[in-house]
Write a structure and sequence with these properties.
It contains 13 helices and 20 strands. It is of the alpha+beta class. Strands 9, 10, 11, 12, 13, 14, 16, 17 and 20 form a nine-stranded antiparallel β-sheet that branches.
């Protein structure tokens, strides 16, 4: 095994390990006991089963692997693995993104402090909610400092919301994220101003401090909660606003000190222009990587893995896209019970379908829609343009992918595509 072509991968999906091997890399995988499987053991050159979120456990294994067989890069593109991959970079002076910069992305309070943002503050006690509302006004948002998928995010529209939100913060603090992963511990919560305006995500790749915005993705949410209901590429924007968003993200990455790697940044365009909501130095979730690959021909997973070895393609300043692609989420009414799931294989076989991911299982009760993990699944599709892809995704849900449900009185029904706004172009 050649150390110069060996990658220490901190946490991964089957797809990530497979793509690393496709690049001709030797893979040393640190995998959590709850995530390891036979496919990863088959693909990776070595698998070390460890709770990779714990540095006290990861460090001695990394030191042993550094001695033999050796490696020249360490990375993670999964949220819980980012910080310890960064610590490994620092420990062996590998040149990848270090822990100080990674922490700015991982901890939303650290990010706001680094940006000198006076309209954000850590939540310590119940009265902080009242004080923040009086100082910054309503509405405002309370969210965990280092969670994902909109878990534990609340909007306060007035003083009356403070008691129930504080009760929920107390309930969640010190617990692990349920329904998706036990790898992330909810601890601190942040208060920050609410930006009223359409939301987008920006997929970028940086190399030696040069930031390329690959795609601006349109994001659909519901004003009653923060669950993501869909995504579309490319975002339907006027040229001036598109340029404005791209410039804001590049300036943000510079301020946070990111030099290399992929990044997924969430941004809202409010009355005073684009404002970064949060950012992650990893790939996007929710099949956004599939949308970007379809439209731009750029595989951000492979970019992230190839970059430390000098194998990443050099991107143009502004990649040109072709056609459109969209993710539509599948949702049901709270309290209904899932009866059956059909049509997944049929949908996956269609030429315009990129991915079908259904989490709903027969016998499960549909939960109230609060965050991404309360959805029943998603489909990702292509189209001639963004609007066509959005419409095609809705056609597949209920038409091909059918999740039958029964309400508490036993009446049958079908899960549906989550509704999305019918905006066309945000003008300059």
């Amino acid at each position: 095994m050649n150390p110069e072509r060996s990658l220490l991968l901190v946490g991964a999906t089957d797809e990530t390990v497979a793509k690393a091997k496709q690049l001709g890399l030797h893979v040393l995988l640190l995998q959590h006991p709850t995530k390891v499987n036979a496919e990863q053991e088959r693909l990776a050159d070595r698998v070390e089963v460890v709770d990779y979120t714990r540095w006290d456990l990861v460090r001695p294994i990394a030191e042993r692997l550094w001695q033999a067989p050796g490696f020249s890069a360490a990375t993670s593109i999964t949220e819980p693995g980012l910080e310890n991959a960064a610590r490994i970079n620092d420990l062996f002076a590998l040149g990848g993104t270090g822990h100080e910069v990674t922490r700015r992305f991982r901890d939303k309070a650290v990010m706001r402090a680094h940006l000198d943002d006076v309209r954000a503050q850590l939540l310590h006690r119940r009265t902080d909610l009242d004080d923040f509302g009086q100082r910054c006004g309503y509405p405002f948002v309370v969210k965990p400092t280092d969670a994902t998928a909109s878990i534990g995010v609340h909007r306060l529209d007035g003083p009356a919301d403070a008691d129930p939100v504080w009760a929920e913060v107390r309930r969640l603090s010190g617990t692990r994220t349920d329904r998706v992963s036990t790898l992330m511990l909810l601890q601190d919560f942040l208060m920050e101003e609410y930006i009223d305006g359409p939301e987008y995500s920006v997929e970028s790749f940086s190399s030696a401090g040069r930031h390329v915005v690959i795609a601006v993705t349109e994001k659909f949410t519901d004003p009653a909660h923060f669950a993501e209901l869909g995504h579309a590429v490319p975002a339907r924007l006027g040229a001036a606003v598109d340029t404005w968003i791209r410039a804001a993200v590049v300036a943000f990455l510079d301020r946070l000190g990111l030099k290399d790697g992929v990044c997924h940044t969430e941004i809202r365009v409010g009355a005073h222009g684009p404002r970064v909501i949060e950012s992650h130095n990893r790939i996007a979730g929710d099949a956004i990587t599939d949308l970007v690959h379809s439209v731009y021909g750029i595989d951000t997973v492979k970019l992230a893995l190839a970059a430390p070895f000098g194998l990443a393609e050099e991107l143009p300043d502004r990649p040109m896209g072709r056609g459109g692609a969209a993710v539509r989420s599948v949702v049901g009414r709270a309290g209904d019970v899932v009866e059956s799931v059909d049509g997944v294989a049929e949908a996956e076989a269609l030429p315009d379908v990129l991915a079908v991911r259904i989490s709903a299982k027969p016998g499960e009760t549909v939960r109230p829609l609060r965050d991404n993990w309360d959805r029943l699944g998603l489909v990702a599709v292509t189209g001639d343009d963004t609007g066509a892809a959005i419409r095609r995704g809705a056609e597949l849900i209920g038409g091909v992918v059918r999740i039958t449900v029964k309400d508490p009185d036993g009446r049958p029904g079908l899960a549906e595509a989550a509704p999305v706004s019918d905006r066309t172009v945000i003008p300059a």
